[in-house]
UniProtKB/TrEMBL annotation:
<feature type="domain" description="Histidine kinase">
    <location>
        <begin position="526"/>
        <end position="749"/>
    </location>
</feature>
<dbReference type="Pfam" id="PF08446">
    <property type="entry name" value="PAS_2"/>
</dbReference>
<keyword id="KW-0418">Kinase</keyword>
<dbReference type="Pfam" id="PF00360">
    <property type="entry name" value="PHY"/>
</dbReference>
<keyword id="KW-0600">Photoreceptor protein</keyword>
<keyword id="KW-0808">Transferase</keyword>
<dbReference type="InterPro" id="IPR001294">
    <property type="entry name" value="Phytochrome"/>
</dbReference>
<dbReference type="InterPro" id="IPR029016">
    <property type="entry name" value="GAF-like_dom_sf"/>
</dbReference>
<dbReference type="InterPro" id="IPR003018">
    <property type="entry name" value="GAF"/>
</dbReference>
<keyword id="KW-0597">Phosphoprotein</keyword>
<dbReference type="InterPro" id="IPR005467">
    <property type="entry name" value="His_kinase_dom"/>
</dbReference>
<keyword id="KW-0157">Chromophore</keyword>
<dbReference type="InterPro" id="IPR036890">
    <property type="entry name" value="HATPase_C_sf"/>
</dbReference>
<dbReference type="InterPro" id="IPR013515">
    <property type="entry name" value="Phytochrome_cen-reg"/>
</dbReference>
<protein>
    <recommendedName>
        <fullName>histidine kinase</fullName>
        <ecNumber>2.7.13.3</ecNumber>
    </recommendedName>
</protein>
<dbReference type="InterPro" id="IPR036097">
    <property type="entry name" value="HisK_dim/P_sf"/>
</dbReference>
<dbReference type="InterPro" id="IPR013654">
    <property type="entry name" value="PAS_2"/>
</dbReference>
Length: 754
């Protein structure tokens, strides 16, 4: 049987360490040994140092069954442990292997059961660990902020584990780290508040910290132990992502040596499936801890992660509540709907408090309203021009304006929240520059050192100060949200102001129009009445003169007087039609159920002499009841029939047919609702259909006065009557054949259902 080691011998340097496959090093730390079992209990992987712990060589163990090497009793114990789902359980399996006691941690890696054995630790006083944990929980409840809690965890972890230094290490969005809390020996230089670049912990290392939340290095000067396997296929390897004994990257080892560290314990702090931070424990000599202590330390980390949301939410809730109170105060203001209200709004301190801004600017109708430490008018104009060029019409929230827009002379502001309030209106909250000092644990720009032997991680961790300028404090999410809510409310308020102004303008115009119409009606009434009197006198005088001249038939003045009398008569008729037209107003509130049969009978009775003189025949059928006004319907019927008689064909006697819908029908082109229709059809001279609309206009005539007499108001009067009752009127004509006038009355909903 041929065996081989699986040591990863790829050359790793600082130029390619971000691609280092640290999950498959093929090596472990020497304070324990590792074997890998197949599903049929064969030892497929084994570390070279197994003989240092049990009387078996790795060459003797590989390829054999676990039972053959360690006995059936040990195999049964492991079998029961696996089948009771205790893999990766809090406590390892305590077992006797070939006469020696071990504590074994077991996990599964791609079909291989990985057994990691460490010699049995001396029994810890679990009562002491339990007491410390209870005391910690009691003290934890007395802390108010997340920082206080982390400081307590650092203290508690150091008391339980005995490491020289315990740090709570927190990542930012870019995974730069900050020592957020610390507890260390009094003689050590504190690292509290120091920052470390994201390159110190590369991506693949952060991924492993998520998978395996506890990591030990017992002796930084250890010699890695290779893992061997049966050489039965190419590319054979073993994923050690979940391993306790996994050997560490040589780059990381050198980094820790440069810091003077002798042993480490690292516990992952996972929050919302993201690596929030680490509990980093350093010791300046060799150090190992028992599984019980490891569990207690891991529990400390879980205390933090379980409280992150609560503590952060509590801090944010207090601030968010203040912002919400300010928002509610602003939106509860009862201000008049006029532009001048912006003068009041801009001076309200709550306008700054809703997002903890230092200044605020509102641009409305090219006028700028400002409060607090707001940018100058020139800066606001330049900022808006830059935003317009970028065609941004949504929220902008930044703590470094120059990262987004190349603005000059913006030293008095660095951060903004910008919201559009319409096509050319805006609100901008601003914050000034906050000059901050960041202490790094060494120059982050010099994380790689080059010497005669090659590239190395930095060996200087002296405090390096960085001065950050051009940035404001970060906008919190609740501040951005509250600002957005108020921008929306302000936009609605501005819309209401504009609508109110338009309403006032239309109300004023309507009032002017009403007064003008009243004046016109009065003028029209007075004028028509004043004109009636001289016309009556003209007719009386001409009638007397014509009577006196009857005995002189050849008198040349007789024809002139007759023409004068007829002109005066036509003028009186025109004035009467104008009066009728102007008296018709919106009378929908006066509509009542009207029997059109009674209206038609009364109309025909009034016109019987005219109908007889014209030799006209009127044919009609039963008409419906509609909602209308009786006297207006008589006027309409009379005008339509007179129109048919007036424009009768000289070649035939006039015939007028009056038909109607007996039940409500839908006329889609008109109402899209149920309605009744009445149609007056005649056999007169007709007209071309292109004039179907114009014949309803006042004073519109298709023929000369000499051909057909009339004022040109009759059909216009009919249209106005139908508009007054909520209906409409249409005309269809064929030249030389006749005309059809149809009127439509909308029904009540009850009639529609019938």
């Amino acid at each position: 049987m041929k065996i081989k080691d699986i040591v990863n011998r790829d050359i790793v340097t600082l130029t390619n360490c971000d691609q280092e496959p640290i999950h498959i090093p093929g090596k472990i730390q020497p304070h324990g040994f590792l074997i890998g079992l197949t599903q049929d209990w064969k030892i497929d992987f084994c570390t070279q140092n197994i003989s240092s712990f049990v009387n078996v060589l790795h060459t003797q163990a590989l390829g054999k069954t676990f039972e053959a090497v360690f006995g059936s009793k040990a195999q049964k114990q492991i079998f029961d442990y696996i089948n009771e789902d205790k893999i990766q359980d809090a406590f390892p399996l305590e077992i006797d292997l070939n006469g020696k006691l071990f504590q074994i941690s077991i996990h599964k890696s791609y079909g291989i059961y990985v057994l990691e054995a460490e010699p049995q630790f001396d029994k810890e006083k679990l009562a002491d660990v339990y007491t410390q944990t209870i005391q910690f929980v009691t003290q934890m409840n007395n802390t108010k902020s997340l920082k206080d809690l982390c400081a307590l965890v650092a203290q508690g972890t150091r008391e339980i584990t005995g490491y020289d230094r315990v740090m709570i290490y927190r990542f930012d969005e870019q995974y730069n780290g900050e020592v957020f809390a610390e507890n260390c020996r009094e003689d050590l230089e504190p690292f509290l508040g120091l920052h470390y670049p994201h390159t110190d912990i590369p991506v693949q290392a952060r991924e492993l910290y998520i998978k395996n939340q506890l990591r030990l290095i017992v002796d930084i000067n250890y010699e890695p132990v290779p893992i061997f396997t049966v050489d039965d296929k190419e590319g054979k390897n073993l994923d050690l992502s979940l391993s306790i004994l996994r050997s560490t990257s040589p780059i990381h080892v050198e980094y820790l040596k440069n810091m003077g560290v002798g042993a480490t314990l690292t516990i992952s702090l996972i929050h919302h499936d993201r690596l929030w931070g680490l509990i980093a424990c350093h010791h300046y000599s060799e150090k190992n801890i028992s599984p019980e202590i490891r569990l207690a330390a891991k529990l400390q980390g879980q205390f933090i992660t379980s409280q992150i949301d609560i503590r952060q939410s509590n801090d944010e809730y207090i601030n968010a509540r203040k912002a919400l109170d300010a928002f509610e105060h602003l939106t509860a203001l009862e201000l008049p709907l006029v532009e001048e209200s912006l003068e009041t709004i801009i001076q309200m301190p709550q306008l700054l408090q809703i997002c903890n801004a230092a200044g605020v600017s509102i641009v409305f109708r090219d006028k700028i309203y400002k409060s607090g430490l707001a940018p100058s008018d020139e800066q606001i104009t330049a900022l808006i021009d830059s935003i317009d060029k970028e065609k941004i019409n949504h929220l902008i929230a930044t703590n470094n304006i120059t990262d987004h827009f190349p603005l000059e002379k913006c030293s008095n502001f660095a951060g903004i929240i910008y919201h559009s309030l319409g096509s050319s209106d805006f609100i901008i909250w601003s914050r000034p520059e906050t000059i901050s000092e960041i202490n790094w644990g060494g120059d982050p720009e010099k994380s790689i050192i080059k010497d005669s032997t090659g590239l190395h991680p930095r060996n200087s961790f002296n405090i390096w100060k960085q001065i950050v300028k051009g940035q404001s404090s970060d906008w919190k999410q609740f501040e951005i949200n509250t600002a957005a809510q108020y921008a929306h409310a302000l936009h609605n308020n501005l819309m209401m102001i504009m609508l109110s102004e338009e309403e006032e303008k239309y109300r004023h115009q309507s009032e002017v129009l009403r007064e003008t119409n009243l004046e016109l009606e009065n003028i029209n009434w007075i004028s028509t009445h004043d004109l009636q009197e001289p016309l009556r006198k003209i007719q009386m005088i001409t009638s007397k003169m014509m009577s006196d001249l009857k005995e002189e038939p050849d008198n040349p003045f007789s024809g002139s007087l007759e023409r004068v009398s007829k002109s005066a008569s036509r003028m009186r008729g025109l004035l009467e039609d104008i009066l009728k037209y102007t008296r018709i107003k919106n009378t929908k509130d006066s509509l009542e159920k009207t029997d059109l049969n009674l209206i038609l009978d009364a109309t025909l009775d009034e016109m019987k002499e005219v109908i007889a003189e014209s030799n006209a025949v009127i044919e009609y059928e039963k008409l419906p009841e509609v909602h209308a006004i009786g006297f207006l319907m008589r006027q309409l019927f009379s005008n339509v029939i007179q129109n048919s008689l007036k424009y009768a064909s000289p070649e035939r006697n006039p015939v007028i047919k009056i038909t109607a819908s007996q039940e409500p029908v839908i006329i889609k082109d008109l109402f899209h609702v149920y309605c009744h229709w009445i149609r007056f059809s005649d056999n007169g001279i007709g007209f071309e259909q292109q004039y179907a609309e114009s014949i309803f206009k006042v004073f519109t005539r298709l023929h000369t006065q000499q051909q057909y007499s009339g004022s040109g108001v009759g059909l216009a009067l009919c249209k106005k009557i139908m508009q007054a009752v909520g209906g409409t009127i249409h005309a269809e004509g064929k030249l030389g054949e006749g005309t059809a006038i149809t009127i439509y009355f909308p029904c009540d909903p009850e009639d529609s259902l019938a």
